[in-house]
Amino acid sequence: MKIQVTGNINEYYVQTLCMLFFPGVKFSKTEATESDGLSVNITVTTTENGADATVDLRTEKGEAVCTHHEESKAGAKVSAEQIACGKAFFEAGKKLTGITPSWGILTGVRPAKLAITGLMDGKSKKEVRDFLTSEYLVSPKKASLVTEIASIENDLLAKANRSACSLYISIPFCPSRCSYCSFVSFTSAKLLGLLDSYLTRLCHDVNQTIDCIRDLGLEISTVYIGGGTPTTLNENQLEILLDTITSRIDPSTLQEFTVEAGRPDTITKEKLQIIKNHGVSRVSINTQTLNNDVLELVGRKHTAADFYRAFEMAREVGIPIINTDLIAGLPGEGFGSFSETIDALIKLRPENLTFHTLCIKNAADFAHKRSNINAWHTFNETSKCVDYSQLSAKNAGYIPYYIYRQKNTIDNLENVGYALPGTEGLYNIYMMEEIHSIFAVGAGAVSKMVSRNGSVIDRIFEYKYPYEYLAETNGTRNEEKVKKIIDFYHNVW
Ligand SMILES: C[S@@+](CC[C@H](N)C(=O)[O-])C[C@H]1O[C@@H](n2cnc3c(N)ncnc32)[C@H](O)[C@@H]1O
Ligand code: SF4
């Protein structure tokens, strides 16, 4: 797609608008590529009382030109130029493609952000919903969802300890690779052979990081062991990791301790017992779908029966909160089979249900088959699945408590966490809303230092891949991280 912009508009913003109507499109400043024949021409002018935008969209099939005038508003967080451009683009895109994006022109990964701010500024829920529908053209359904989540999050955040912190531990290993996955995760037998050395190095860094947290006088509110698939660790390895963590932290300040176990084919009763014995309060046992044909098609190497078995074992062992992740829009899955999965899962009553929408990233094995992917689903089908999941969860007494969006998600749909009241996954909220620092350990981990009033956020990156992490034998990277953290707390926090 060729993009030409005249006026005070960020080109990246224009690209995100293009992706609302033309997912997967490639951008060029010069020529409309022959294959897509798409071009967009935008002119934005600043006027005395606001901004005027004209958007001209062309494809092989036709052309749509729309204009919009936006008045400047006192205290607005976004410029009149950007809103004018967004609204003109939205109209042109709708006219040309027939698509009405349900999130309107609200881009970015945190759709609840505006609603949270609105409620905190004293707006009523209705005012926030009206603002989202009129200013950002968000559909009434999504505006209600995000306002409800913002209100629940605000209540939880009011009780959160902003002077505490959370600890994230990364296990980027899985027994095999799922074709839709774009996370860094090692799966080959050779790389899985690194697990012992990885664990040794990880435990060293965990100790150093917890000591740093203690020396800074911070409490730890939540611990999250994520992946990859943490239960790729065998029983002995899991015991070593959990001993390392629990021997150094004060359990009395912990609000939540999660192990994202993940794939049912890695879960044994012994591992769950070890997890429970170490005070873990929340595990994820994920199936993504209960349709065995789809599981096989996406290479998940487990069946629905394996999921039920793992879930039952977690119940028997007595882990208080079980979360289950699902994905709407997987290849080969239509509304019929997706809704059966939802119905069956709700009957099991996991405390948390996290509904994702398939996101197609280049790092995923199936990304090169993008054209097939478009044939796997239609807008209405995935949208219907997402609507069904949200409605069913709500009718069954679950509340939506966190939401995020990603680029390249089918139809720009969202990911939403649901919980039975009182069981909300707090780490997810603390991380998303950046209420306090996250100390992250292990390959691919990103520590996020958040100042006391939230105005400064510094990120500290670990090596991305386990082999890089292990190649550095003397552990200086973690020492450097600790120094940066101390510096942040002494000079910025
Ligand atoms: C960090 S992943 C790891 C979880 C665990 N390894 C598993 O697969 O069960 C967390 C969740 O992200 C979601 N996810 C992963 N890849 C995705 C994709 N391409 N699109 C949408 N959701 C995805 C899945 O629901 C997954 O359970
Ligand atoms: S989806 Fe989960 S199990 Fe599959 S490769 Fe990605 S992280 Fe591993």
Protein model, in words:
The structure is a single chain. The protein is an alpha/beta fold and 493 residues long. The protein folds into 3 domains: 1-97, Ribosome hibernation promotion factor-like (Double Stranded RNA Binding Domain); 101-150; 160-439, tm_1862 like domain (pyruvate-formate lyase- activating enzyme, Alpha-Beta Horseshoe). The protein is built from 17 helices and 15 strands. A hairpin with a 6-residue loop joins strand 14 (446-450) and strand 15 (457-461). The longest helix has 21 residues, at 195-215. The radius of gyration is 23 Å and the shape is globular. Iron/sulfur cluster is lined by residues 174, 177-178, 181, 183, 185, 227-229, 262-263.
Secondary structure: number of strands: 15
Q: What spatial order of strands do you see in the largest sheet?
A: 11-12-10-9-8-7-6-5-13
CATH architecture of the largest domain: Alpha-Beta Horseshoe
Q: What distance lies between the first and last C-alpha atoms, to the nearest angstrom?
A: 44 Å
Compute the CA-based radius of gyration.
Answer: 23 Å
**What is the total domain count?**
3
Output the structural class: alpha/beta
Give the helix tally: 17
Q: So, the CATH homologous superfamily of the largest domain?
A: tm_1862 like domain
By CATH, the topology of the largest domain is pyruvate-formate lyase- activating enzyme
Q: What ions, cofactors and ligands are bound?
A: S-adenosylmethionine, iron/sulfur cluster
CATH class group of the largest domain: Alpha Beta
Shape: globular
